[in-house]
Specification:
single chain, 7 helices
Length: about 220
């Protein structure tokens, strides 16, 4: 039998090493606990939530202007961004819904563990800042049903929208990581894109006060 040239042996060894490394670092589909907190990594998709699943989650209605409020034109990067409301599946123009109000827009995904830690604190802050700051979550993964189930399990009932295509993230120039919080001024301009999880209600309140000038 002819022996394999030394150069070929080194090439084969290098190829085996590369394949082994790729297998070692390839994401496993063993549940959200092991998925990295990067947007686009956990692209799943799937059937949307049923009416019963939405009802069980008991999510708050998405922000909207009441008929007796004067109209405020949407402006800024969120103007014209169409998303679906997690509470009822109906379409929402996010820029129009938030126009004229300071807002905290939180980008998250069902598989993101820092998001799961942060969301209850955001709910507490929303209760503290009721009427002063609008808090809305943006689920940034295609699997809407898992978003609704995750919020139900976390007992978080914040108003939220589904943005599996990443339109909100692109519009505000957020990096491809989660969670991200976007502080929006009443005129629709972006005050701050915060690329870290909040660690407490006081942390949220202090950051919003510093960047939007709204104390709560």
């Amino acid at each position: 039998m002819r022996s394999i040239p030394a150069a070929w042996r080194w090439t084969l060894a290098a190829l085996i090493a590369v394949v082994a490394l790729a297998v070692a670092i390839w994401p496993r589909d063993s549940g959200h606990d092991n998925l990295p907190t990067y947007y686009g990594t956990a692209v799943r998709g799937g059937p949307g939530p049923s009416d019963g699943q939405r009802a069980a989650a008991a999510l708050s209605a998405c922000p909207a202007r009441s008929p007796d409020e004067p109209p405020v034109p949407a402006s800024g990067p969120l103007a014209g961004i169409k998303v679906g409301c997690l509470a009822d599946g109906l379409p929402v123009d996010l820029g129009e819904a938030l126009a004229g109000r300071p807002a905290l827009v939180n980008l998250w995904a069902y598989w993101c563990e820092p998001c799961a830690t942060e969301l209850p604190a955001l709910q507490q802050y929303a209760a503290r800042a009721a009427g002063a700051v609008t808090v809305v979550t943006v689920h940034s993964d295609p699997d809407e049903a898992k978003a609704v189930a995750r919020l139900r399990d976390l007992d978080v009932h914040l108003p939220g929208v589904q943005d599996g295509g990443g339109g909100v993230r692109t519009a505000v120039g957020a990096p491809p990581v989660l969670p991200v919080s976007v502080l929006v001024r009443p005129d629709g301009s972006i005050a701050k894109v915060i690329v870290r999880p909040f660690d407490s209600v006081d942390d949220i309140a202090a950051t919003v006060s510093a960047e939007l000038g709204v104390a709560a």
